[in-house]
Amino acid sequence: MTEPGQNQAPQTLLVALAHPDDEVGMVATMQAQIERGDRVVLLWLTRGEMTEALGPIPTEDIIRRRTEHGRIAGEILGVETRFLDFPDTGVHATPEAAARVARVIAEVRPDAVLTWGDAWRRGLRHPDHQATGKIVRDAITMARIKRCVEPIPTHRQPAPVFTYRDKHSRFPAVAIDATPYRDKIRELALHYQREMEFPDPEWLEGRLRGIGKRWGLEMAEEFDAWETRGGIVSSLLPVEIDGAPDHPERTREETL
C-alpha cells in the first residue's frame, strides 16, 4: 500500500460478503476509505433469510426485513449497498455463480476487493463465507473476459484482494487503526444487535482491542493481503502490488 497523494483520483473499494452483518469487522476500513474521498460499494450475495433471530415468520418477511437492515447499514456507513439473490446456506462456488458476481465487478470497476478468505475457526468457516470468498476471487478474473460479462465492458485493471484473517493464516497481514472509528463501529453493532441480537458491541470492541494489541494500537481491523505487502496502513487504497505483475496488461483497446 502507498500513502494517498494529495491529487489522487477517487478510487473504488468493493466489499463483497455473504450476509448482512458480515461487515461488522470492516467498519473502520470502509470509513478510512470514505475519508479519503473514495467510493465504497457493499455487496451481499444473500439476504440472510435462514436466520432464526427474527422468530418464526415467513421467509418473505425475513427477506424484506434483512434487506431493510442492509439499507440502514449502508446509511450508517455512508456506502452504496447492493444485494444478489443467492440462497442463504446455499451459496456454492460454481462458474455460474462467479459469472454473476463478475458482472457486478465489471459494472462497479473496483480498485481493490475485500471479501471472505480461507478460514478454520467456527463462524469464519461458515460454508457461505468460504464459498463467497472463492466466488468473488474467481469473479475478479472472470470480469476480465468479455464473453463472461457482456454487454458490460470488461474490467481488466488490477483489483487486489484482501480477506478476513484467520488465526492460522500464512498470508501477509495488513492492519488498519480502528480507534478513530469507534463510534461508527458501535453504531453499526447496535443497529444489528437491536434487530438480530448480534453482535454485542462490547464483544466486538473487545475483539478489535485484541487485534490492536498485536499491532501496538488501541483497536485494529486485520486482513490477509493476497497481493500486496503487509503492515499497518491508513487505508487499503491506494495499493501497490507486491512484486512484478503476474499478468501483463493489454496495451490496446478491450476488443477480445
Which terms summarize this structure?
disordered N terminus; 256 residues; globular; 8 strands; Rossmann fold; alpha/beta; eight-stranded mixed sheet; 36% helix
How would you characterize the overall build of this protein?
The chain contains 7 helices and 8 strands, in the order βαβαβαβααββααββ. Strand 2 (39-44), helix 2 and strand 3 form a beta-alpha-beta unit. The chain has helices spanning 27-35, 59-77, 95-108, 127-142, 146-149, 182-196, 201-215; strands at 12-17, 39-44, 80-83, 112-115, 161-164, 173-177, 220-225, 231-233. With 256 residues, it is of the alpha/beta class. An 8-stranded mixed β-sheet has the order 3-2-1-4-5-7-6-8, sandwiched between helices. Helix 6 (182-196) runs antiparallel to helix 7 (201-215). The protein has one domain (12-233): LmbE-like (Rossmann fold, 3-Layer(aba) Sandwich). The longest helix is centred in the N-terminal third of the chain and has 19 residues, at 59-77.
Number of helices: 7
Which architecture would the CATH scheme give at its second level?
A: 3-Layer(aba) Sandwich
Total tally of structural domains: 1
- Can you tell me the overall shape? globular
Major beta sheet, strand line-up: 3-2-1-4-5-7-6-8
The helix content, as a percent range, equals: 25-40%
Summing up helix and strand content along with how strands pair, one would put the structural category as: alpha/beta
Return Rg in Å: 18 Å
Q: Which whole number gives the mean pLDDT?
A: 93
CATH topology: Rossmann fold
- What is the distance, rounded to the nearest whole angstrom, between the alpha carbons of the first and last residues? 31 Å
Which residues sit in consecutive blocks of at least 5 with pLDDT less than 50? 1-6, 251-256
Q: Quickly name the level 1 CATH class.
A: Alpha Beta
The string of secondary-structure elements, in order, is EHEHEHEHHEEHHEE
